Amino acid sequence: MKFNPAVSSSRRKSRRAHFQASSLQRRKLMSSMLSKDLQKKYNVRSVPIRKGDEIQVIRGTYKDRDGKVTTVYRRKWVVHVEHITREKNNGATVNVGLHPSKVMITKLKLDHDRKRLLERKKRGDRARPADEVGPGIGDLD
Question: What does the pLDDT read at residue 2?
C-alpha cells in the first residue's frame, strides 16, 4: 500500500532513481548494519559505511571474514576490504567488491561528525520529554 503520494511506487522510476543517484545520495544508500554490541551501545541499527571502519562479511563467498574498509567505491556500489582479494589469470591480485548490505560493522572509525550523526540517529529520542514540549491543553487556564 502506498503511504506517501509524493513518492512513486513505479518499479521503473524506483530503479531509475536508484541507479542515477548522486554521490551524496549513494552515501546514505550504502549503509551497513552495526554489530549487536554497537547497536546496544549507540542505540542505532545502521550507519553509512566509510573508509577505516572494521567489518565482518555476513553473506557470500567471503562469509565470516574480517577486515578494515580500504575504499568505498560509490560509483560501483561496493566497498573494498583489506585481505579480501582474488588473483587474476595474469597473476595480479585485485580487491573484491562487497556490497555494504552484506557486511556488518564491528568497529566504527569515530570522528566529530560521526559522533554527531550517532547522536542524531539515536532511536527513542524522537518523542521529546514532557518538560521540553511546553504547556499542555490543561495547563492553559
Answer: 84
